[in-house]
């Protein structure tokens, strides 16, 4: 089963995402995996080869989402290419957005994010194509 | 420009704190999807009742802004239900609503104040001092036994207000620590001009939302 990695230091958001996935019945196709910082997220991608999507908060303790994306891209470029990453932040920094886009991040989501609406968009736009070979 | 506290400076501080209160209210309405939520004033000074605080600090050259939410577990549960629905969750999850709310408020203020600094730099060819990048801390949650007193209402550098929830209140306190000389060195603005600019600057989030209609990378959901 494919997996979705939810990376946020706030337990509320991680739980809200799980509920959104369940409400859209996406949890039948995507097993949710949680991480509360970038370091845990890196560990998760090393251990879970079926992670196909990642929703990543930018500012977190221990390791930021930006640093996680950089390290993921550097360590596992093939896995990175097969994973659709969505960054979530209040941050308006243009340089960071440009760098993440350059690396291959799919979207930059502006907080506050409605997890249910995000899951609806994920279902409509991306999940159907999961079984096909991922192409950017 | 004098660094002492003139009446104009005091008024400008209150203006900035009022702006922060209105922005925090706007964020809470967005986050909870409760468009009719309004802040109410607080009369008493001692609010200690074995509760929690979440707080966050934002630092710019010349400006240190702290935003704190005082809440009971009951309020945290009521508020988190606006996001999670009526199921029961442990306090780690329900309390994190407050951390996220502080994050959203301070993150938004960071974007707005950054816009003010950008505008100042465009208008003024030669600042005396280069602006350091802003620093936004991570929200911190702690029991509130030792921080239960509110600022005096006549204190120009702090403001407290409340939102009624579930027969209790969510109490917010915003404080400003200002170095007016440092602010002027970087922006060439006195505090009144800075506060006026803050009230009129375009929210980068709104600009990004408009851009999101034109590209598929920046998304507002």
Fold blueprint:
The complex is a heterodimer of chains A (136) and B (221).
Chain A: E1 2-7, H1 11-23, E2 30-35, H2 38-47, E3 51-57, H3 65-75, H4 77-81, E4 84-89, H5 94-103, E5 107-110, H6 115-125
Parallel strand pairs in A: 1-2, 1-3, 3-4, 4-5
Chain B: H1 7-32, E1 52-60, E2 63-71, H2 73-84, H3 91-123, E3 135-136, E4 140-143, E5 158-165, E6 168-178, H4 180-187, H5 191-200, H6 204-212, E7 218-219
Antiparallel strand pairs in B: 1-2, 1-3, 1-4, 2-6, 5-6
Helix pairs in contact in B: 1-3, 1-5, 2-3
What does this structure look like?
The complex is a heterodimer of chains A (136) and B (221). Chain A is 44% helix and 21% strand. Chain A has six helices and five strands, in the order E-H-E-H-E-H-H-E-H-E-H. In chain A, helix 1 links the parallel strand 1 (2-7) and strand 2. In chain A, helix 1 (11-23) crosses helix 6 and helix 2 (38-47) packs parallel to helix 3. The two termini of chain A are 21 Å apart. Chain B is α+β, with helices and mostly antiparallel strands and 221 residues long. In chain B, strands 1, 2, 3, 4, 5 and 6 form a six-stranded antiparallel sheet that branches. In chain B, strand 1 (52-60) and strand 2 (63-71) form a beta hairpin. The N and C termini of chain B lie far apart (45 Å). The A-B interface holds A 9-13, 15-16, 19, 59-61, 89-92, 97, 101, 106-115, 117-118, 121 and B 27, 30-31, 80, 83-85, 89, 92-94, 96-97, 99-100, 103-104, 107-108, 110-111, 114, 136, 138, 204-205, 208-209, 212, 216-221. Strand 5 (107-110) of chain A pairs parallel with strand 7 of chain B, so a sheet runs across the interface.
């Amino acid at each position: 089963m494919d997996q979705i990695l939810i990376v946020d230091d706030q337990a509320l958001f991680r739980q809200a995402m799980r509920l959104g996935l369940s409400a859209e019945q996406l949890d039948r196709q995507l097993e949710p995996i949680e991480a509360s910082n970038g370091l845990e997220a890196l560990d998760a991608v090393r251990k879970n080869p079926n992670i196909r999507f990642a929703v990543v908060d930018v500012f977190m303790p221990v390791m930021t989402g930006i640093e996680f994306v950089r390290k993921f891209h550097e360590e596992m470029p093939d896995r990175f290419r097969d994973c659709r990453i969505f960054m979530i932040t209040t941050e308006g920094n243009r340089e960071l957005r440009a760098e993440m886009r350059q690396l291959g991040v799919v979207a930059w989501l502006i907080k506050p994010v409605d997890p249910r609406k995000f899951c609806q968009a994920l279902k409509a736009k991306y999940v159907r194509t999961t079984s096909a070979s991922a192409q950017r | 420009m004098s660094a002492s506290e003139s009446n104009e400076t005091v008024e400008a501080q209150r203006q900035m704190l009022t702006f922060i209160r209105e922005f925090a209210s706007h964020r809470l309405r967005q986050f909870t999807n409760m468009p009719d939520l309004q802040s109410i004033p607080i009369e008493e000074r001692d609010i200690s009742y074995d509760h929690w605080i979440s707080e966050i600090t934002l630092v710019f050259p010349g400006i240190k802004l702290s935003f704190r939410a005082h809440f009971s577990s009951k309020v945290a549960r009521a508020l988190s239900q606006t996001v999670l629905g009526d199921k029961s969750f442990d306090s780690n999850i329900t309390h994190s609503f407050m951390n996220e709310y502080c994050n959203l408020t301070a993150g938004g203020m960071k974007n707005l104040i950054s816009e003010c600094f950008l505008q100042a730099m465009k208008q003024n060819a030669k600042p005396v001092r280069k602006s350091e990048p802003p620093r936004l801390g991570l929200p911190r949650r702690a029991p509130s036994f030792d921080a239960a007193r509110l600022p005096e209402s006549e204190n120009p550098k702090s403001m407290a207000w409340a939102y009624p929830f579930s027969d209790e209140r969510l109490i917010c306190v915003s404080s400003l620590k200002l170095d007016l000389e440092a602010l002027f060195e970087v922006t060439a603005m006195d505090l009144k001009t800075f506060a006026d600019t803050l009230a009129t600057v375009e929210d980068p989030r709104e600009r990004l939302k408009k851009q999101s209609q034109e590209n598929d990378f920046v998304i507002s959901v």
